[in-house]
Amino acid sequence: MKRESFVINDASASLIQAPLATPFRIATGQHDELANIFLRIRTSDGICGYGEAAVATHITGETVAATLVNLQTAATALRGRRIDDPEEVCREFAPAFAGNHAGLAALEMALLDTSSRVQGIPFYRLFAPVAAKEPLLSFDTDITIVIGSLDEARAAARQFAGQGFKAFKIKIGRDEELDFSRILAVREIAPDSELILDANMGFSAERILAFLNRLDKHAVRPVLLEQPVPKKDWDGLAAITAALAGSG
């Protein structure tokens, strides 16, 4: 698809902070507050595009402070520049964002968002020829049920099922018995839903396989298992893969 070029009149990056309505609890920690970097681009015609960097220091090693500096530097460099190809601009800036993928993602999103708004088209139309294949009207996504009490898991499952979600990512890894009960509760409330288990590195290979075997005896078979063991436990990941191969 031919894209219209645009001139960036102004660009700015700033920190946005806000308390979370529900603490985001996982096996390796907890977030009580949103602290992301917001990138805003404004064209010479007054059209604005936006990008956001969600930094997860405990997982990727990136920091909010470094991401803010990188995006502020990029914003300064973009002012007054004509953009013909957003992807090419991202490739140009990529070395400056080495090890800071959240920052580069925010830059990419802001440029592409601006491009779609300049052209007056839905965002997905930028991705031709994929978007040219019909139907491409909607897609399903999952919703996360964070670590918490059994009652909290039930309440979240009822709320999200009522909102139409059909896939639930359940955070596990702190308390196996409680995790087991939470998963069964979600399955009971949403019996036709897909379940994803995200352990955030909270298990060993032996423990997660035993845990999955227990669930299987209750006819609960997750469609995806995410981060079951510490990220450098290659042997554990290989053992899990081998054990689950062909399990369906």
Description:
This protein is of the alpha/beta class and 248 residues long. The chain has 2 domains: 6-127, Enolase-like, domain 1, CATH 3.30.390.10; 143-244, Enolase-like C-terminal domain (TIM Barrel, Alpha-Beta Barrel), CATH 3.20.20.120. The chain has 8 helices and 8 strands. The chain has helices at residues 57-60, 64-78, 86-93, 101-119, 150-162, 176-189, 205-216, 234-244; strands spanning 6-26, 29-43, 48-53, 82-83, 143-145, 167-171, 194-198, 224-226. The strands form 2 sheets. It has a 4-stranded antiparallel beta sheet with strand order 3-2-1-4. The chain has a 4-stranded parallel beta sheet with strand order 5-6-7-8, with helices on one face. Strand 6 (167-171), helix 6 (176-189) and strand 7 (194-198) form a beta-alpha-beta unit. Helix 7 packs parallel to helix 8 (234-244). The longest helix has 19 residues, at 101-119. The radius of gyration is 21 Å and the shape is elongated.
Briefly, what is this?
The chain is α/β, with parallel strands linked by helices. Helix content is 39%, strand content 24%. The protein folds into two domains: 6-127, Enolase-like, domain 1, CATH 3.30.390; 143-244, Enolase-like C-terminal domain (TIM Barrel).
Poorly predicted ranges (pLDDT <50, ≥5 residues)? none
* CATH architecture classification name of the largest domain: 2-Layer Sandwich
Supply the number of helical segments: 8
Reported for the largest beta sheet, the result is: 4 strands, antiparallel
Order of helices and strands: EEEHHEHHEHEHEHEH
Q: Count structural domains.
A: 2
CATH class of the largest domain: Alpha Beta
Instruction: Label the overall shape.
Output: elongated
Structural class: alpha/beta
Strand content: 15-25%
Mean pLDDT: 93
Total number of beta strands: 8
Helix coverage percent? 25-40%
State the strand order across the main sheet: 3-2-1-4
CATH homologous superfamily placement of the largest domain: Enolase-like, N-terminal domain
